[in-house]
């Protein structure tokens, strides 16, 4: 038996309401460029809109002019999507509350998740959206996942409840030490001020 190794998210497709609601939210609120438009090839009564969330991957929406937006929370039963999270810069994150409030969009307020900050709100169809901002930048040549797994190991070893900034900082230091060579034979911390 062999795995079917994936290499990232190709796209996520959501069932939307009418075309304009989708464009107004995904591009008009979240700033995702509307990059492709064609019929749903499996259902001629639907459109298929494509948006770039900022990393070249795609969020696609099936639209139908007979469907209307329903703002009630989407189901959270087993097998349902709980929420979608999108990365934003620190500069943008610091503006999210005010910008949502300027549009009259309710939100959770900022949430400290230890390794990131988040804010939640619903799209016009009741899907929970999270805007997240990492508290760290991974070292050159590493990914956020590399830092997360090392920070997790350090959190577990310390017996801490959840990842905190100290775990992230120590994980980054460890990854730099492992990935970047040095001419020094002793890379332990030093105090040059004594």
Automatic annotation (TrEMBL):
Keyword Oxidoreductase among record annotations: yes
One Pfam family matching this protein: Glyoxalase
Enzyme Commission code: 1.13.11.-
EC class of the enzyme, as a word: oxidoreductase
Organism phylogeny: Bacteria, Pseudomonadati, Pseudomonadota, Alphaproteobacteria, Rhodobacterales
UniProt GO MF annotations: dioxygenase activity
PROSITE patterns linked to this entry: VOC (PS51819)
Superkingdom of this protein's organism: Bacteria
InterPro entries recorded: Extradiol_RC_dioxygenase, Glyas_Bleomycin-R_OHBP_Dase, Glyas_Fos-R_dOase_dom, VOC_core
Keyword set, alphabetical order: Dioxygenase, Oxidoreductase
Protein known as: Ring-cleaving dioxygenase MhqO
Domain VOC intervals: 8-134
């Amino acid at each position: 038996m062999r795995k079917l190794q994936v290499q990232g998210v190709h796209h996520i497709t959501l069932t939307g309401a009418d075309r304009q609601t989708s464009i107004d939210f995904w591009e008009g609120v979240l700033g995702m460029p509307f990059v492709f438009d064609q019929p749903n090839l499996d259902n001629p009564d639907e459109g298929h809109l494509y948006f770039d969330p900022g990393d070249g991957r795609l969020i696609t929406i099936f639209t139908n002019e007979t469907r209307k937006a329903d703002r009630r929370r989407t189901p959270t039963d087993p097998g349902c999507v709980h929420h979608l999270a999108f990365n934003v810069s620190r500069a943008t994150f610091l503006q999210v509350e005010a910008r949502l409030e300027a549009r009259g969009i309710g939100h959770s307020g900022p949430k400290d998740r230890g390794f990131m900050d988040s804010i939640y709100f619903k799209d016009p169809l009741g899907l929970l959206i999270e805007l997240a901002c990492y508290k760290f930048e991974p070292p050159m040549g590493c990914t956020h996942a590399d830092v997360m797994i090392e920070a997790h190991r350090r959190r577990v070893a310390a017996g801490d409840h959840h990842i905190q900034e100290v775990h992230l900082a120590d994980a980054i230091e460890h990854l730099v030490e492992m990935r970047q060579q040095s001419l020094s034979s002793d890379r332990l911390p030093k105090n040059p001020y004594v």
